Amino acid sequence: MKIGNFEISESSEGDFLIYQLSGPAADALQSGDGRATDALQLVANQVSMRQSEDSPRIVVDVEGGGDEREQTLGRLADRAIKRARETSRSIALDPMNGRDRRTIHIKIREIEGVATMSIGEGRYRQVLVVPEGAPEYDEAVEESS
């Protein structure tokens, strides 16, 4: 790829193995829309699953960009929760990658009276934020358990 060198550090969090990349190559990977990072994470997870079915999920965090993205997704989740509660209707977020959906699910899972579920297929998969009382609420609670 000729994008330069990078350093890798490893940590774990629950059922996830996190690889943090830094350096000139990481800067190049982080530029754009994040597809390169998503592709790298997908390949890493596929290799890991071939090693063992019990292997942890792998998260690739490039140059700490995950922290900033997590904050942005947190604000998006807060707005969706507020709107869902105000309207008493489910709110579908824009399609997003699996890592971003997971971040939204985890943030909302801790909040009383609202649940999430994923809808759609492939790259068009979305998070549905469901307030208590909405028709999909029981299904969303079941899915998030």
Notes on the structure:
The protein has 145 residues and is of the alpha+beta class. The protein folds into two domains: 7-63, K homology (KH) domain (GMP Synthetase, Chain A, domain 3), CATH 3.30.300; 68-144, 2-Layer Sandwich (Ribosomal Protein S8, Chain: A, domain 1), CATH 3.30.1370. Helix content is 46%, strand content 23%. The chain has helices spanning 24-30, 35-51, 65-87, 98-109, 137-144; strands at residues 7-13, 16-22, 57-62, 91-92, 114-119, 126-131. The strands form two sheets. A three-stranded mixed sheet has the order 1-2-3. Strands 4-6-5 form a three-stranded antiparallel sheet. The longest helix is centred in the middle third of the chain and has 23 residues, at 65-87. The chain is elongated, with a radius of gyration of 17 Å. The mean pLDDT is 84.
**Termini, distance in Å?**
41 Å
CATH architecture of the largest domain: 2-Layer Sandwich
Q: How is the main sheet built?
A: 3 strands, mixed
Roughly what is the average pLDDT, rounded to an integer?
A: 84
Spans of at least 5 consecutive residues with low confidence: none
* Number of distinct beta strands: 6
Structural class: alpha+beta
The helicity comes to: 40-55%
Instruction: State the CATH superfamily name of the largest domain.
Output: R3H-like domain
Shape: elongated
Q: Whole-number radius of gyration?
A: 17 Å
How many helical elements? 5
Q: Helix and strand succession?
A: EEHHEHEHEEH
The CATH class of the largest domain is: Alpha Beta
Structurally, the number of domains stands at 2
Describe the strand arrangement of the main beta sheet, using strand numbers.
1-2-3
